[in-house]
Amino acid sequence: MPPFQELAVFALALIAAGAVAGLLAGLFGVGGGAILVPVFYQVYGLFGVPEAVRTHVAVGTSLAIIVPTSIRSFHAHWKRGAVDMDILRNWTIWVPLGTICAPVIAAYIAGRELRIIFAVLSLLIAIRMFLNRQHWRLGDDVPKGVANTAAGFGIGLFSGLMGIGGGVMSNLWMTLFGKTVHQSVATSSGVGVLISIPGLIGYIWAGWGASGLPPFSTGFVNWITVALVMPLTLYVAPYGVRLAHSLSRRQLEIGFGLFLTAVSIRFFVSLS
After folding, report:
1. Which residues, in sequence order, are bridge partners of residue 222?
2. Which of 22, 58, 83, 96 could crosslink 198 through cysteines, CB 3.0-4.6 Å?
């Protein structure tokens, strides 16, 4: 049994991770998995969960928490009239389909190259946000039809391949085509719902019957962790939404630029 002091430290880490994830969900329309997964990984290691399944359980459990957090964040943004429902309706099938296809395609694509592409792209968009270069975009409006459908599939696919929430990539896509950062963040919260639900189902299915799972797990989802962390993320998410809409466009651009820089650094570090 782990020492009490270590249990206390990791309990505080879970609380902090849940709060930050909820805030990010509301503020930037992202899931917060980049915060939750590393913390869960360390906690499960403390309790002796085997390395073979530890990362899988961390990711699956993170997705379980992101589902209701994304829904709450999306609803709060939707009530403010900031969500572009036309984009989401077009992506309703294609983003989840891309997410479902990711595990199959991952067997044939080197993850290192994908992380390099994503890290560089995130950094370039962060620079654009910092320098306020609004002419650094591909068009004045998000394309319709096949192009936007392909983008939705690609967002789901790349997010599934790299183990990230779709909010970052959908934000990048929409801001490159002239959407304001407020509207991009709001719409991305809905993308998190489209990715997290099929992702959660996939991790339950993939881990069904696996050995070494922690107690009270269904597949790669541990419900004890969900019960401990989810209430805080749900509580904090609306405050992130409120903060996002209280900031000016420039302030939100700077904040999102800093977030993208942190994401880019994380992927570059993972390459070493």
Report:
1. 217
2. 96
How many other C-beta atoms lie within 10 A of the C-beta of residue 137? 13
Which residues fall within 8 angstroms of residue 213, CB to CB, at 6 or more apart?
A: 49, 53, 57, 207, 219, 220, 222
Q: At what angle do helices 51-79 and 33-46 cross, to 10 degrees?
A: 150
CA distance 220 to 209: 9
Region 5-11: mean pLDDT is 69
pTM of structure: 0.72
Q: What range defines the domain where residue 130 resides?
A: 4-270
Structure tokens at 91: 């992506």
Phi, psi dihedrals of residue 157, rounded to the nearest 5°: -65, -55
Those residues with Cβ within 8 angstroms of residue 171's Cβ, 6 or more apart along the chain or in another chain: 28, 29, 30, 181, 184, 185, 188, 256
List of residues 6+ apart from 167 with CB closer than 8 A: 28, 29, 30, 31, 185, 188, 189, 191, 192
Is 106's pLDDT higher than 60? no
Query: Nearest-5° angle of CA 113, CA 141, CA 242?
Result: 85
Angle between helices 167-176 and 111-131 (to 10 degrees): 50
pLDDT, tens only, 68-84: 888 888 888 888 888 88
- Would you say how long the chain is, in residues? 272
Domain count of the fold of the chain: 1
Is the Cβ–Cβ distance between 236 and 133 less than 8 Å?
Answer: no
Banded model confidence at residue 118, pLDDT cuts 50, 70, 90? low
- What one-letter code names the amino acid at 66? I
> Is-contact 168 128, C-beta < 8 A?
no
Give the angle 120-194-207 at the CA atoms, nearest 5°. Answer: 90
Q: Residue 159: which of 218, 219, 114 has the closest Cα? A: 114
**178 φψ region: left (φ > 0), alpha (ψ -120 to 50), beta (else):** left
